[in-house]
Specification:
The structure holds 2 protein chains of 2 kinds.
Chain A: H1 3-10, E1 15-21, H2 30-40, E2 44-48, H3 59-71, H4 75-81, E3 93-96, H5 99-105, H6 107-117, E4 121-123, H7 129-142, E5 146-147, E6 150-151, H8 157-166, E7 171-174, H9 188-198, E8 206-209, H10 215-222, E9 227-230, H11 232-239, H12 244-256
Parallel strand pairs in A: 1-2, 1-9, 2-3, 3-4, 4-5, 6-7, 7-8, 8-9
Helix pairs in contact in A: 2-12
Chain B: H1 3-9, E1 40-41, E2 44-45, H2 54-69, H3 71-85, E3 91-93, H4 95-101, E4 104-109, H5 119-132, E5 137-142, H6 146-158, E6 161-167, H7 168-173, H8 175-183, E7 187-191, H9 198-211, E8 216-219, H10 229-237, H11 239-252, E9 259-263, H12 268-274, E10 284-292, H13 303-306, E11 308-312, E12 315-319, H14 344-352, E13 355-361, H15 362-376, H16 382-389, E14 401-406, H17 414-425
Parallel strand pairs in B: 4-14, 5-6, 5-8, 6-7, 9-10, 9-14, 10-13
Antiparallel strand pairs in B: 1-2, 3-4, 11-12
Helix pairs in contact in B: 3-5, 5-6, 5-10, 6-8, 10-12, 11-12, 15-16
Classes of the chains: A alpha/beta, B alpha/beta.
Chain lengths: 257, 426
């Protein structure tokens, strides 16, 4: 069984998915961060492929992407760093990235490399559903990769249904109309949106992301979905860290108790 | 004879629109050079946007053609183009320039529009559309500041709130336009990421739109971005070639010139100047890109020469990028042309061989600007001067009719011209 599906089936506890940018804070940190996250007990990891023009990202992830690129990170190098990944961890690993670097790498080549490396799913926010269906769905399936789609508060109900039908794994529920890293707490309006989607009884589990930053927002989000994704808060913590292993353990502990 | 009577007795001049206006396209078949129903120009275009922007872009896609076809929209748009923008813009026979190049050169005077460039044709159209979509706020990106000024202008006209994103570098080199936007009541927010120029201002505007999806319309200034923007902007700019047809007919006896030259950054003025001629194969369409220090230096913005197929700002097009797919910061002395991508229609025109792609360096363009000032008494925007510079690269017949789209005026560039002259004289 696919690692994403079994991850959701194995437990009733909230799923914690942590995002970080590959090649940040230092070029060689990728594997160390993955190992530390695995040891700390996160349920899933999302690795960001840095891009020069990340339009869905707020300042924190923009900044980490820029530093990662300055450090010399590239998709080719990332796959080299991820060789033997499955010796380190058994939890689902996702790659998140914008389409252009993937296109230059070659989509077919990219998907094969992902499968070879042991990647479970992909989040490509600027890949539209129609393009996916028309050009890429078969290749994703052939390589056993889940394409994770986003929904937002303005996504219409019939489109959520369509996304649900196309999804395998989970749906990435963007918590508000925003880029990543908004720091205000969850509002009543957001909670109403979570409830509305909850009531749709979708096939796929949902993870809530964007603006989830601490134990309180993680707990709140998990009350309306199977869990949550934390990115900017983790990336911000990494930048100042002098002890990656210890700080990652502390960060995860503060969320999961 | 009173002055008024005298006016009335004047024969119809070249710039008064004849009765047979809005000639219908010659064929009802969809043009192979126009966008298709899926939002593509051949292999290029599309709408590669995050889900958060989907509802906005989809609403626009579903409604833009319908709104633009409404009689009340057309009435308001045409009236404002005439009374507010000052259209039609003259088609001026540049006698001395023609003598120099031994041919017949006409300048399409978009520089004489209100706000000083072609940009206002589009911002006016889009703000009328935004009103009909029920939007209350407007955002825009700007490079040289011409689109920002044109957006701030129509926002003042319509009483709508206006935010313009502009790269910090461009704010410094286009200060007069920043002051104009502020005087017009717009808020100018510096883009502080990346190269801090047009590309980054566009990123910031898109992020703003993601954060404010319901009450805000994003007025993109060029034929770039996700479908339907490239087509919508081209349609609003198509008034340029629509006028050219009857103006040329009146002045030369034929609607079709031999050449149309226009500068291309994102490509909105060229898209308007080419629009009604895309299917007229005898008309040579010449797109002039900014070569910066030279196409083969690392300081250039000549996308069709240096770009590979990629995706930026929601559109699949030619894109200046590294082998790894990171977007390269382009260079041009003109802040309006240093965009690493290009409208998807140009990627298609290039692939199909329908347009001639040339490039002009910073130096060639500035010199062409001085030449026009000295020979015709017209100071062009440095962007437009790129199109003029390309006159040197073509072999014209004495009987050829050549139109250069003079997309903007050079007031904003005086400082750059002055500094160049100082350096040249040293």
């Amino acid at each position: 069984m696919n690692r994403i599906k079994s991850c959701f089936q194995q437990t009733d506890r909230p799923i914690l998915n942590i995002f970080f940018t590959a090649g940040f804070p230092r070029l060689e940190d990728t594997r160390r961060i993955i190992r530390s996250l695995d040891r700390a007990g996160v349920d899933m990891i999302e690795i960001g492929i840095p891009f020069s023009d990340p339009i869905a990202d707020g300042p924190t992830i923009q900044h980490s992407s820029k530093l990662a690129l300055d450090n010399g990170m590239s998709l080719k190098l990332l796959f080299e760093q991820l060789e033997g990944l499955r010796e380190d961890t058994g939890i689902p690993i996702l790659l998140m990235g914008y389409l252009n670097p993937v296109m230059q790498f070659g989509m077919d080549n990219f998907l094969e490399k992902c499968a070879e490396t042991g990647i479970d799913g992909l989040i490509l926010p600027d890949l539209p559903i129609s393009e996916y269906e028309k050009n890429y769905q078969q290749a994703f399936q052939k390589n056993g990769l889940s394409n994770i789609f986003l929904i937002s508060p303005t996504t219409a109900e019939n489109r959520i249904r369509k996304i649900d039908a196309l999804s395998e794994g989970f749906i990435y529920m963007v918590s508000s109309s925003s880029t990543t890293g908004k720091t205000s707490g969850l509002s009543a309006k957001q909670l109403a949106y979570f409830e509305r989607v909850n009531a749709m009884a979708l096939e796929n589990p949902r993870l809530i992301g964007f603006g989830i930053k601490d134990a309180e927002s993680f707990r709140q989000a998990s009350a309306y979905a199977r869990g949550a994704i934390i990115g900017s808060a983790f990336v911000k913590m990494l930048e100042g860290s002098l002890d990656l292993e210890g700080d990652i353990l502390g960060f995860v502990k503060s969320l999961k108790g | 004879m009173s002055k008024l009577a005298n006016e009335q007795m004047k024969p119809e001049t070249q710039n008064s629109k004849p009765e047979t206006q809005n000639p219908k396209p010659k064929t009802q078949n969809p043009s192979p050079f126009q966008v298709d129903e899926n939002g593509y120009y051949g292999n290029f275009g599309g709408a590669f946007i995050p889900e958060m922007l989907y509802p906005n872009v989809e609403e626009l896609r579903q409604r833009y053609l319908g709104i633009m076809a409404e009689p009340s929209f057309q009435q308001e748009f045409q009236q404002l183009l005439k009374d507010y923008v000052g259209r039609p813009s003259p088609l001026y026979f540049a006698k001395r320039l023609s003598e120099k190049y031994q041919t017949n050169i006409f300048l399409k005077r978009e520089d004489l529009n209100h706000t000083g460039a072609h940009k206002v044709n589009n911002t006016l159209g889009q703000i009328l559309l935004a009103k009909r979509l029920g939007k209350q706020k407007i955002i825009a990106e700007t490079g040289a500041g011409q689109h920002g000024v044109a957006t701030a202008t129509v926002c003042a006209l319509m009483g709508m709130e206006c935010i313009v994103y502009m790269g910090e570098v461009d704010i410094a080199r286009q200060r007069p336009n920043v002051e104009r936007m502020l005087m017009l009541g717009a808020q100018v927010i510096p883009a502080l990421t990346g190269s801090r120029t047009l590309k980054d201002a566009t990123n910031e505007a898109m992020r703003h739109w993601i954060n404010h999806p319901t009450d805000t319309h994003y007025i993109i200034g060029s034929v770039v971005g996700p479908h339907p923007y490239p087509d919508m902007v081209a349609r609003f700019q198509s008034v340029i070639s629509e006028e050219m047809r009857w103006q040329l007919k009146a002045q030369t006896g034929r609607e079709n010139p031999d050449y149309i030259l226009a500068c291309v950054g994102g490509g909105s003025n060229a898209a308007g100047a080419f629009y009604h001629y895309l299917d007229e194969e005898e008309v040579k369409l010449v797109a002039v890109e900014a070569a910066g220090h030279g196409v083969h230096t690392d300081k250039s913005a000549a996308t069709t020469f240096l770009g590979k197929v990629g995706i930026l700002h929601g559109s699949k097009t030619l894109l200046m990028q590294t082998a790894d797919g990171q977007v390269i910061e382009p260079h041009s002395i003109s802040a309006g042309l240093d965009y690493p991508g290009i409208g998807p229609i140009y990627a298609h025109l290039k692939e199909k061989g329908r347009a001639i792609f040339l490039s002009a360096t910073d130096a060639e363009s500035i010199e062409a600007g001085f030449l026009l000032a000295e020979m015709e008494g017209i100071i062009p925007a440095i962007e437009s001067a790129h199109a003029l510079a390309a006159l040197d690269q073509l072999d014209f017949q004495a009987s050829d009719v050549v139109v250069v789209n003079l997309s903007g005026r050079g007031d904003k560039d005086l400082q750059t011209y002055i500094e160049w002259k100082k350096k040249r004289n040293e």
